[in-house]
Amino acid sequence: MKRLILSISLLTLAALLLAACGGASAPQAGSASASAAAGTSLDISYPNALPVRNQLLLGTLRLDESAQPLSAAQAAALLPLWQGIRGTMNSGAAAQAETDALLKQIEAGLSIEQLAAIRGWKLTQTDLQAWASSQGIATASGNAPGSGGGSGVPGSGQTLSAEARATRQAERGGAGESSGLSKALVDAVIAHLESKKAN
Q: How far is it, in rounded angstroms, from Cα 131 to Cα 182?
């Protein structure tokens, strides 16, 4: 009988300890769990934070101005992943899980120090607008001459530089300005990685 009571007491104590541990971790559910749920080590909880994708994009461009530039090998590994992201953005039909998987692979392709640098910059929409302005990309409705017809513009894209293509895509964003700007940013990163890979 004493053994039975002791066993029940131990089981009850174990259950209480487990409940207490679970309760202790619950208050961290704010920013940390949002990042964990997205499978990222980047912080998206601060005011005006860019989404993970745009933090990685803008951060990748900034890394060359830091003490943690990308290597040619990293550029070669990251290039097809960002091309995959661009494909999902262009199709508009990709599942979020597919995009998240690509972003996880991109984060895995960066060093701990590079991710720490991007996290430390706390990139915001203001930073993205400043980048767009520095590239001469219009973030309001398009006002560049000759932004020819449909969304594809298959012929003209081949004669444009990467920067001009990025500008045109941003201008085509129209009402979906941030979407157009994100596409311009993806194209700029792809062009940047292509040039680093070649060196």
A: 11
Strand partners, 124: 49
**Is residue 161 in some structural domain?**
yes
Decide: 85 and 154 in contact? Cβ < 8 Å.
no
In a domain, 34, yes or no: no
Residue 113 lies in a domain: yes
Q: Give me Rg for the CA atoms of the chain.
A: 23
CA distances from 151 to 43, 140, 157, 198 (A): 34, 17, 11, 30
Q: Is residue 82 pLDDT above 80, yes or no?
A: yes
Number of domains within the chain = 1
User: Which pLDDT tens digit goes with each residue over 88-109?
Assistant: 887 766 678 888 999 999 999 9
End-to-end alpha-carbon separation of the chain, Å? 78
The rounded distance, in Å, linking the Cα atoms of 78 and 110 is 9
In a domain, 20, yes or no: no
d(CA 151, CA 116): 37
Give residue 157's domain range: 47-141+152-198
pTM: 0.64
pLDDT in tens, 147-168: 333 333 333 344 445 454 444 4
Show Cβ contacts of residue 74 under 8 Å, excluding neighbours closer than 6 positions: 109, 110
